[in-house]
Automatic annotation (TrEMBL), chain A:
Any one Gene Ontology molecular-function term assigned to this protein's record: Rab geranylgeranyltransferase activity
Record function comment: Catalyzes the transfer of a geranyl-geranyl moiety from geranyl-geranyl pyrophosphate to cysteines occuring in specific C-terminal amino acid sequences.
One CC-aspect GO term: Rab-protein geranylgeranyltransferase complex
Its EC number(s): 2.5.1.60
Lineage, opening ranks: Eukaryota, Viridiplantae, Streptophyta, Embryophyta, Tracheophyta
Naturally occurring in which organism (per UniProt): Actinidia rufa
Keyword Iron: no
Protein name, UniProt field: Geranylgeranyl transferase type-2 subunit alpha
GO biological process: prenylation
Family note: Belongs to the protein prenyltransferase subunit alpha family.
From TrEMBL, chain B:
GO molecular function ontology, one term from the record: GDP-dissociation inhibitor activity
Name of the featured protein: Rab escort protein
Family classification: Belongs to the Rab GDI family.
PANTHER family given in the database record: CHM, RAB ESCORT PROTEIN 1 (PTHR11787:SF4), RAB GDP-DISSOCIATION INHIBITOR (PTHR11787)
Source lineage: Eukaryota, Viridiplantae, Streptophyta, Embryophyta, Tracheophyta
Organism: Actinidia rufa
Acidic residues: bias regions: 560-577
Length: 709, 577
């Protein structure tokens, strides 16, 4: 049934197909005639039945039958044929037709749907269904239609989940290479675990048994993927924290923020990391959750400050899709000039989780109360500094970056917000149990890899090691003997990239995430990549601290929760094709993405949300080189009717340029207030395009290192 | 009394018979058709009048309907022709078997045969093919049901689903006269004396609870290696050097952990032993202790080992209604010769054997032929053959066989199974593996509620063979102490599994002879292996020497629809992929 290569049809087969088609055609036109005329006579139904038997994939015919049945039922009520027997016979005829259709193609969606529809009407007996399913599962034990239908029938019949679980056990011991059976098992177990059915509690015990079962499959044939999928599900069940948590914030807990009113801080005296320019009169507050959540608003988040009350705050999700769900949420605290007390400690207290309302995609509430506090010092205006210096051109050359002074490292105000997750619950036995399970799994798969060279085993080991680190990091008490596996995991992914080239992009992405996690895992390693930006050609002291993650071969961005404070970021000379997640770095004002593999403007969509971004370098990428963007339908675009209706291209019409060809760029740049843009060495970057950009962004002062007049 | 030379081909292995028969399409060779009513082609020497020359065009077509009826009859009772005619491959009722074993007496002194013209008649002598017969009865029950038994003389013997014998049966159509049942399970005895299931397939490995996880990986990856080799995938071929090496050396090479972990501890050694036990003795069915080169008379080469594994694996799942790799004919082994004979009869063949110049049957009738095939127990006296003065064949060692009857199964709930005791598993000096086949009443070899066990072990001499058999009998059964026959092992502690109580047993030593071909050819005795492959090969060889130009078993096509008992599943293999 499976793993059979497709064969080109022989001339005879083609001939037979053509013959079949020629027979079907008149039948089909006859049927459509009936359908259009709303004819539901016996003869019409027979034609339809004949057609479906020959071609069960014809959905229109199935829909016609549904309409016909409804029609007959509603009309018979007015007459005398309302007795249950005749209704029953109408439906059993429908069942018979689906059966015949399934006999000719047991993977026909339409036929299975129709059968479900009939049974849902509740006029037919469902006793035969399990027998029928047995026949289908004998033909093909993996047939997911049959498995799906089985769950439907089991629910109709009120068969207990335990019984069904036993059925999957039997099927698996018959032949464990059965994705559908394993999947069904995960569905049933989730239900049993959720209901805490007798014998399925505690969860840890049940999961241990399941691990033991799936190990038999994995070790018997490590190359069979079906068991691995189930193992991945089990691992997810083990590691996953059900309720979403607030994992990171900006400003961090306990921090002191220095802000200047007119954009000119005396940065020599203050740490550049917490200095913040208040030219907009607001301070952003970012909440970063462990997963995408919704329901973050002034009633679920409590803010105490002398300037604002939480009621006035509007929280916006930082996400490029329109789901209303996001991992990062943003609001702005207003520091209105008239109320500012200069050099005074203005304490702000934010608390979350005190009431339900913040929910994850799976419907879990953020129930853990979390609180953080920071202090804001507003610097008095220093009029002796002119505005000019803020508008110097940023040059990304190495000579302008200087190793951070040691005193800076010591007095580093970077707060690692892990402590937000830390709480008493984490030390409970459940966590210990989880950590033990993971450690046990790690040992087992190390053993497996010593026996067999198995790609998916390596991938699983990498995932397990990361899960282990996550779980032990929750448990702060065991900090002392905390073993961190970053190097081993990175090695595993490197190895996989080489041994499995078709999937190397996936491994590279995973590798990037782990690498970033390693770099940001502690303040020391992060500071090693932090540089002071000081333009050597300029006399002014620019106070940016730049995180430079260059030449690391990263293809994706991660660990954003540790990087919320970044104002200047250099990601040049990597293999980035997406900058997903960057939208949470709301303080970012200078970004270097040059020498990467960004293929379209859509990949830059997160930039739209970075309102403070002033300097952008996207030179030496592949923008415009790929005529077809496979992600296009996933992005906001006029094609998906998500954006564009209010766009006024005509404003930007330039002689000889069809603006519509640049609509992607229009979409990204129209709301940005960049002062400096480098776009050289991209396919799209021709002269006409630059003209278009200049018109689009009047704020631009430099383009491709050329100062504009 | 003159030696009765049975002209019956039943002294041949069944396949030889049919082979000989189908290949003689015409009477040109002066052959004779020995046929009686189209049923069992027996040659009753006392009814010589029924012998008539065969002319193929005179073949009565009315035979066919009768046979068809015969085949269609449901629940066909076991056919019972004169048992001795099937000689060494027969299945006999209990008392007949006992009598047969004991009747193997030396032939009487040759009577002076009159010379007839220029031909000299030579009396044939027979020799003991069975010795050291030891029949013990602990309970009268089996004897009371004597006629309900069909005991195999040359047991244990089964067929692998992918055996060439099965192919031959399918090809020749013989399979339609027989029904088979699968042997439900195979067990191998570990060092602790416990029986472990033989994990012979992917799902068996998955379900096995005795194997460690890493062992499962190794075992299945080894099976994969074999599969890859057999698919003639150049990259995955096992090197020629490895193929010539002893199989056990290859196994230990594969089994050594790839990393330099030392397996010096007892556990490591034991697991190695266990796996070698499973692969070498329970799947590749090696006879001799492969790890002891001093006593090992037959070192299994990797090439042969791989082929045997391949046979085992291609057997699993060949027939959708056979669970494991092995099948066994209902009504016993004796059905096979019958089946071939019937098939031969239907196809209008001859049962033929000739003599050097001729044979004088006991009744006095003289038959002349250029070629003659004799059963293995006949000795042609020296005057005819200068080269081999005593016998036609080489004696090739002995095989100790045993038949035991109990009322309980060795494993609860399992009716038919194979149990392997690898060398050294019963006692330290055990050189050859002992194979035990348990058959329940579903195979129609015994009355319901009873189980028949067949045991066999190769041996050099009777003592050695008997020692192995006794050790196995003691390991499997609780043998009632004479005098208190009904006292089983009930006083054993409750958690140890109660062994089946032995009701009746027959242990004997059988000579093994090879096939020989000269002007008078002779067939081999049943060998010590579990299936028919070697016998079939010998038969083929004999046939090709006798009739170099004939095809061995031309393809038979069926004109009538078959309700074949063997239901081959064409996509049985692809289903689990």
């Amino acid at each position: 049934m499976h793993g059979r290569p497709r064969k080109a049809p022989t001339p005879q087969e083609e001939k037979a197909l053509a013959l079949k088609a020629s027979k079907l055609r008149p039948l089909q036109s006859q049927f459509l005639q009936f359908h259009h005329n709303k004819t539901y006579t016996k003869e019409a139904l027979e034609v339809c039945a004949k057609l479906l038997e020959a071609n069960p994939e014809y959905l229109t015919a199935w829909n016609y039958r549904k309409i016909a049945v409804e029609h007959i039922l509603s009309h018979s009520e007015t007459e005398t044929e309302t007795d249950p027997e005749s209704i029953k016979s109408i439906f059993s005829e429908e069942l018979r037709i689906t059966e015949r259709a399934l006999a000719s193609n047991y993977k026909s969606y339409g036929a299975w749907y129709h059968r479900k529809w009939v049974l849902r009407k509740g006029h037919s007996s469902i006793d035969r269904e399990l027998q029928l399913l047995e026949v289908f599962l004998k033909k093909d034990t993996r047939n997911f239609h049959a498995w799906n239908y089985r769950r439907f029938v089991a629910a109709l019949k009120n068969r207990s989940d335990e019984e069904e679980l036993q059925f999957t056990t039997d099927m698996i011991s018959d032949n464990f290479s059965n994705y559908s059976a394993w999947h069904s098992r995960s569905v049933l177990l989730s239900q049993l675990l959720e209901k805490k059915v007798q014998g399925y509690f505690p969860k840890e015990k049940v999961l241990t048994e399941e691990y033991n079962l799936v190990h038999q499959a994995l070790f018997t044939d490590p190359d069979d993927q079906s068991g691995w999928f189930y193992h991945l599900w089990l691992l997810d069940q083990t590691v996953k924290v059900e309720s979403p948590l607030l994992v990171s914030t900006w400003p961090p807990h306990g921090s002191s923020i220095n802000v200047s009113v007119n954009g000119c801080l005396d940065k020599s005296a203050l740490s550049p990391m917490t200095s913040f320019d208040l030219s907009t009169g607001t301070i952003p507050v970012i909440l970063y959750f462990s997963e995408a959540v919704e329901g973050v608003n002034s009633s679920t988040i409590n803010v105490e400050s002398i300037y604002d009350t939480s009621q006035d705050l509007i929280w916006t999700p930082l996400s490029t899709n329109n789901s209303g769900r996001a991992q990062a949420w943003l609001t702005h605290l207003n520091f209105l000039e008239e109320k500012i007390h200069f050099l005074q400690a203005n304490s702000v207290k934010v608390s979350a989780g005190h009431s339900q309302g913040i929910t994850s995609l799976n419907g879990f509430h953020c129930t853990h109360p979390t609180e953080f506090e920071f202090t804001v010092y507003v610097q008095p205006p220093t009029p002796q500094h002119a505005d000019l210096q803020c508008l110097e051109m940023i040059s990304w050359g190495d000579e302008n970056f200087h190793i951070c002074e040691t005193h800076l490292k010591e007095s580093s105000p970077i707060k690692f917000s892990d402590q937000l997750e830390n709480n008493e619950d984490n030390k409970s036995t459940a966590y210990k149990c989880k950590a033990e399970t993971i450690a046990n799994e790690i040992a087992l798969f190390r053993e497996l890899l010593s026996e067999a060279n198995c790609k998916i085993g390596k991938l699983t080991l990498a995932r397990l090691l990361m899960a282990h680190d996550v779980i032990t990091s929750y448990n702060k008490s065991s900090d002392t003997n905390k073993s961190v596996h970053f190097e081993e995991v990175l090695d595993l992914y490197c190895n996989l990239m080489n041994s499995d080239p078709p999937h190397s992009q996936f491994y590279k992405d995973e590798y990037s995430l782990v690498l970033l996690q390693q770099l940001t895992s502690n303040p020391e390693s992060l500071l090693r990549h932090c540089y002071h930006y000081r333009d050597s050609s300029s006399s002014s002291i620019h106070g940016y601290i730049c995180l430079r993650l260059c030449n690391l071969s990263i293809s994706r961005i991660g660990s954003i929760k540790q990087l919320l404070w970044i104002q200047m970021l250099d990601l040049s000379h990597n293999q980035l094709h997406s900058i997903e997640g960057l939208e949470a770095m709301q303080l970012l004002s200078c970004l270097n993405l040059s020498h990467n593999q960004i293929g379209t403007f859509f990949a830059l969509e997160p930039l739209k949300l970075l309102k403070s971004l002033k300097v952008l370098n996207i030179s030496y990428n592949e923008i415009g080189a790929h005529s077809v963007d496979t992600r296009r339908y996933l992005c906001s675009s006029p094609l998906s009717h998500t954006v564009g209706s209010d766009w006024s291209f005509s404003e930007f019409a330039i002689d000889g340029v069809d603006v519509k060809t640049y609509w992607e760029a229009f979409f990204i740049f129209k709301d940005l207030k960049l002062t400096q843009l480098d776009i050289i060495a991209n396919v799209v970057a021709e002269e006409k395009f630059k003209v278009f950009l200049l018109k689009l962004m009047p704020t631009l002062k430099w383009i491709d290192d050329v100062e504009l007049q | 009394m003159p030696v009765r030379i049975s002209l019956s081909p039943f002294t041949l292995p069944a396949t030889t018979l049919a082979a000989t028969a189908t290949s003689l399409p015409s009477p040109h060779r002066g052959s004779l058709s020995l046929f009686r009513n189209g049923r069992y082609p027996v040659v009753p020497a006392h009814r010589p009048n029924q012998l008539r020359p065969h002319h193929s065009r005179h073949w009565p077509p009315r035979i066919h309907p009768r046979l068809r009826r015969l085949r269609c009859r449901k629940n066909r009772p076991p056919s019972r022709p004169q048992p001795l005619l099937r000689a060494h491959f027969s299945s006999l009722p209990l008392q007949d078997l006992a009598a047969f074993l004991q009747s193997q007496s030396p032939s009487p002194p040759p009577s002076s045969a009159p010379s007839d013209g220029n031909l000299t008649a030579v009396e044939l002598t027979t020799r003991h093919m069975y010795s050291d017969v030891e029949i013990t009865s602990h309970s009268p029950e089996p004897l009371e049901h004597s006629r309900q038994f069909n005991l195999d003389l040359a047991g244990p013997r089964v067929l692998f689903c992918a055996d060439s014998a099965v192919d031959l049966m399918l090809k020749s159509g013989t399979s339609q006269y027989m029904e088979f049942k699968s042997v439900d399970a195979s067990f191998v005895c570990g060092g602790d004396g416990k029986l472990a299931t033989v994990p012979d397939s992917r799902s068996a490995i998955f379900k096995d609870t005795s194997l460690g996880l890493a062992e499962k990986t190794r075992l299945s990856s080894f099976f994969k290696l074999v599969e890859g080799h057999l698919k003639s995938d150049d990259e995955r071929k096992i090197s020629a050097e490895d193929l010539e090496s002893p199989f056990i050396a290859f196994l230990s090479k594969m089994w050594l952990p790839p990393k330099d972990t030392m397996i010096d501890d007892v556990v490591g050694h034991w697991t190695m032993y266990l796996h070698d036990g499973i692969i070498l003795y329970a799947i590749a069915m090696a006879d001799y202790d492969q790890s002891d080169t001093d006593v090992c008379k037959d070192v299994l080469k990797t090439r042969d080992g791989i082929n045997r594994l391949a046979l085992y694996h291609s057997s699993v799942g060949r027939f959708s209604n056979a669970l494991g790799a092995l099948i066994y004919p209902i009504y016993g082994q004796g059905e096979l010769p019958q089946g071939f004979c019937r098939r031969a009869a239907v196809k209008g063949c001859l049962y033929f054997s000739g003599s050097y110049k001729g044979v004088k049957v006991a009744s006095g009738q003289e038959l002349f032929s250029h070629q003659m095939v004799l059963g293995p127990s006949f000795i042609v006296p020296s005057p005819l053959f200068k080269s081999s003065p005593d016998s036609l064949q080489d004696v090739r060692g002995k095989v100790a066989r045993g038949i035991c009857i109990t009322k309980t199964s060795v494993k609860p709930g399992v009716s038919n199974c194979l149990v392997i005791y690898p060398p050294k598993s019963l006692y330290p000096e055990q050189v050859t593996s002992v194979r035990v086949l348990q058959t329940g009443s579903s195979l129609a070899g015994c009355p319901s509620g009873m189980f028949v066990f067949y045991l066999s072990a190769l041996c050099d001499d009777a003592n050695q063979g008997k020692k192995s058999l006794h050790a196995a009998v003691n390991a499997i059964f609780s043998v009632p102490i004479s005098g208190t026959p009904d006292h089983g092992s009930t006083d054993e502690s409750e958690n140890t599994q109660v062994k089946p109580t032995l009701l009746w047993s027959a242990l004997y030593i059988q000579e093994m002879t090879t096939c020989s071909f000269e002007s008078i050819s002779s067939t081999p005795m049943p060998d010590g292996s579990l299936n028919y492959n070697d016998i079939l090969d010998a038969t083929k060889e004999l046939f090709h020497k006798m009739f170099p130009d004939e095809e061995f078993f031309p393809e038979t096509t069926f004109s009538e629809p078959e309700d074949g008992e063997l239901d081959e599943s064409p996509n049985g293999e692809s289903l689990d992929s």
